[in-house]
Design goal:
Largest sheet: 7 strands, parallel
Family: Belongs to the uroporphyrinogen decarboxylase family.
Oligomer: single chain
Strand content: 5-15%
Catalytic activity: uroporphyrinogen III + 4 H(+) = coproporphyrinogen III + 4 CO2
Distance between the termini: 43 Å
Pathway: Porphyrin-containing compound metabolism; protoporphyrin-IX biosynthesis; coproporphyrinogen-III from 5-aminolevulinate: step 4/4
Binding site for substrate: 28-32, 78, 160, 215, 333
Protein name: Uroporphyrinogen decarboxylase
Order of helices and strands: EHHHHEHEEHHEEHHHEHEEEHEHEHEH
CATH topology: TIM Barrel
Structural class: alpha/beta
CATH architecture: Alpha-Beta Barrel
Length: 368
């Protein structure tokens, strides 16, 4: 899909190229904190009705871009689309989160797992990527901002597949990991191939960057993380296309609670590592040097503070990273559904304003 990017700042930052300012997008930026999203979800009838309809998915993907001068769009979907495509029976109950009717618990369950046919089972996601790219592009082939595709990590998907939904302690999946590591490695191997195929399908359809959400990697012990999460992130990084239509496709890996493994994550072959808010951004940059870009890492709760505090915390992070290439500003996790939308506008404006000052060799002043 040929197009000319009007704003490629996000992609250049991921590739550690110089930028005029620090680009910003937000994890879960199309979500329940926006009244227009809630209106569209109501028309769709349910979360899955929204996520599985390319027209609705396109509509909500574009909604935050209409409100804020964000530097990237991210496909609206869910990380659990792959296990749903494997036939595990995904549903969302009000107030309870995702549930699988057929969790993977026995040897027979594990033996039945196979990589789904992406076009046959997840064609609605691929169609949404194509439709979003068209919607981002005007009649002269000029595209507003890049589009990010994504998937859950093999380990994070396995957590939901074995637990049958969310979990406070991951007792079932971690018991399988320790008692029957052979079964867990089989699940993760299938998942890694499925994630690679899924991301490649998104890239072929028009995604210009991709992200792996290892949401539950931080639930693992040191040593266990390397065997059962990191190893399979690396497998995905090897399997994902990094060039398409003559352009580099940057890959971002985000492990929530994974700050202690930053160097190891950076060595998996990804272009960027996402950080949660527990990591010192300046120290993280020193630790990885020029190997990867970094994404993050404002505490999402900051967005409940008054505008002056939001701007102060944003400036602090921009200054902490310094005048170096390779920073994409983001939250340290997804935006809360209770976030005041006007506070997001304050954040985006301050990141752009303060980072332009830093690029000019100045210390950003408080806004007038």
């Amino acid at each position: 899909m040929a197009s000319t990017l009007l704003n490629d700042t996000f992609l250049r930052a991921l590739l550690r190229q110089p930028t005029d300012y620090t680009p910003i997008w937000l994890m879960r930026q199309a979500g329940r904190y926006l009244p227009e999203y809630n209106a569209t979800r109501e028309r769709a009838g349910s979360f899955l009705g929204l996520a599985k309809n390319p027209d609705y998915a396109t509509e909500v993907t574009l909604q935050p871009l209409a409100r804020y001068p964000l530097d990237a769009a991210i496909l609206f979907s869910d990380i659990l689309t792959i296990p749903d495509a494997m036939g595990l029976g995904l549903s969302f109950e009000a107030g309870e989160g995702p549930r699988f009717a057929r969790p993977v618990r026995s040897e027979a369950d594990v033996a039945r797992l196979e990589v789904p046919d992406i076009e046959a089972t997840l064609g609605y996601v691929v169609d949404a990527v194509r439709e979003i790219r068209r919607a981002l592009t005007d009649g002269q082939g000029r595209q507003r901002v890049p589009l990010i595709g994504f998937s859950g990590s093999p380990w994070t998907l396995a957590c939901y597949m074995v637990e049958g939904g969310g979990s406070a302690d991951f007792r079932t999946v971690k018991t399988m990991l320790y008692a029957r590591p052979d079964l867990m490695h089989r699940i993760l191997e299938v998942n890694a191939r499925a994630v690679s195929a899924y991301l490649n399908a998104q890239i072929e359809a028009g995604a210009q960057a991709a992200m792996i959400f290892d949401t539950w990697g931080g639930a693992l012990a040191d040593g266990v993380f390397q065997q059962f999460s990191l190893r399979y992130i690396e497998a995905v990084a090897r399997g994902v296309k990094r060039e398409h239509d003559g352009a580099r496709i940057p890959l971002i890996a985000f492990t929530k609670g994974g700050g202690q493994w930053l160097e190891a994550i950076a060595a998996t072959g990804v272009e960027a590592v996402g950080l949660d808010w527990t990591v010192d951004l300046g120290h993280a940059r020193e630790r990885v040097g020029s190997r990867v870009a970094l994404q993050g890492n404002l505490d999402p709760t900051v967005l409940f503070a008054p505008p002056a505090a939001i701007r102060r915390e944003a400036r602090t992070l921009v200054e902490r990273f310094g005048n170096h290439p390779g920073h994409v500003f983001n939250l340290g996790h997804g935006i809360s559904q209770f976030t005041p939308p006007d506070h997001v506008a304050e954040l985006v404006d301050e990141v752009h304003r303060a980072s332009r000052a830093v690029r000019a060799g100045q210390r950003p002043a408080e806004p007038a």
